[in-house]
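QA checklist item 7 of 12: single-chain prediction sanity check.
[x] sequence parsed
[x] length recorded as 179
[x] structure emitted
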Amino acid sequence: MNTKRVLIVLASLFLSYASHANEFDEGSGEFDAPARPGYSEADIQKKIENEMAIACSGNLCKVVGQDNQGSGWTVQFQVGYGNNNNNGNGDTIYIGGNNNNGNNDAYASVTVTYRNFKCHSNLLVTPAVYRFVNTYLYNMVNSDGSVKRNFSPADQTVILFYTTMLNKVSACGMGGVVN
C-alpha cells in the first residue's frame, strides 16, 4: 500500500512538472515558420527588388491603385422657403413659386445633371514600407503557393496594416473628377 502511494505521488509530481511552462520556454512552435525549400530570404528580397523597379518612382512606390470611368445622371429635388441658392450646379427647372432669389416665397425645383467622370486613385508609400509589407506577405505563402495555416501576431498585424492601406484607396464615381 505504501508503494502504491509513493508511485502515485511520483507520477503526479512528474506530470505536474511536465505540464507547467514559464516565460522562458520555447513555446509550442505553432507560429514557427516552416522551411520553404523554394524560397530563401535572398529569393524573396530579389523578387521584391524586381517588383520595386516597376512599382517605384523616386521615393514613392505604388502599392495598389484603382481606375474608374463612366457617366451618369443625377437628379436633385429642392423644396423650401426663401433664397434658393442652386449655385449653378446643373440645370434647374422651377416647378412653382418664384425663382427670384431675393424674396421669401416658397419654391420647388428640380436640378438635373449629367456627368462624365474618370478618376485614378493610387496608394503611394515609401520604399521601406513597400519592402516591409511585401516581405511579410511573401513569408505568408508556402513554396507550393498555398497560404500558411497559422499566422503569428506579427503576421496578423501586417495583414491589418495592409488591409487598412487598401481601404484608403477610394473608389470614385459620380462625385469624382468631371471631364
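[x] summary fact logged: Residues 64 and 150 are 26 Å apart (CA to CA).
[ ] second reviewer sign-off
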